[in-house]
Amino acid sequence: MLSFIWAEDANGLIGAAGQLPWHLPDDMHYFKQTTMGNTIISGSRTFRSYNRPLPGRENIVVSSQTDFPAGIEVVSSIARLCGIIAENPDKEYIVTGGANLFSQLLSQVDRLYRTKIDATFSGDTYMPAIDYSLFDQIKSVKGVVDAKNKYPHTFEVFERKTN
Ligand SMILES: NC(=O)c1ccc[n+]([C@@H]2O[C@H](COP(=O)([O-])OP(=O)(O)OC[C@H]3O[C@@H](n4cnc5c(N)ncnc54)[C@H](OP(=O)(O)O)[C@@H]3O)[C@@H](O)[C@H]2O)c1
Q: Is the Cβ–Cβ distance between 37 and 57 less than 8 Å?
């Protein structure tokens, strides 16, 4: 199974100069909780934003390069990546971004973990357009807003319709 996880602002912005445009620890906690025990798949630019394998998860980076730290499985093509996913139908593979990788896998994704942030930011990287009529929303839960989490946000989950 193939999933995406990301957070976007009210305009669909996801990145700024290679980093996240916001600081939202509640979403980082949700990311950790959702991905833990699964395999995460990142484009090399997204990987470079944290630059180490995330513990408790298998880490795949999609790249034409090979200079990655120990603990990273480098996959050099989408075809090979799709082969790995097809070979392991009982596993959940979660794509953590960025926009480039999401675009290439959009037609194949089964589940979407979207954090919608009710604020606007400046940046340079946007989520590709998704046809949500192809998905059912199965969850919508408001996140915590407090001194450390200043922006209202909602954790949503969508699953691709089967017919
Ligand atoms: N808000 C969020 O939830 C969220 C999530 C993720 C990322 N982001 C942000 O998004 C931005 C990064 O996204 P991005 O779209 O610029 O980059 P990206 O998708 O993270 O990485 C793109 C790179 O991955 C490699 N790659 C992609 N497809 C490949 C393929 N088919 N074969 C071989 N290599 C491939 C290429 O680099 P090589 O040169 O290595 O081959 C490509 O330049 C950052 O600002 C990040 O912080 C935000």
A: yes
**Residue 57: CB within 6 Å of ligand 1?**
no
CA angle, 28 as apex, 25 and 30 as ends, to 5°? 115
Look at ligand 1, atom 25, and give the residue with the nearest C-alpha. Answer: 63
Domains of the chain: 2-160 (3.40.430.10)
% of the chain beyond a pLDDT of 90:
99
User: 107 pLDDT exceeds 90?
Assistant: yes
The pLDDT assigned to 157 comes to: 98
Q: Render 71-133 in DSSP notation, one character per residue.
A: TEEEE--HHHHHHHHHH-TTSPEEEEE-HHHHHHHGGG--EEEEEEESS----SEEPPP--GG
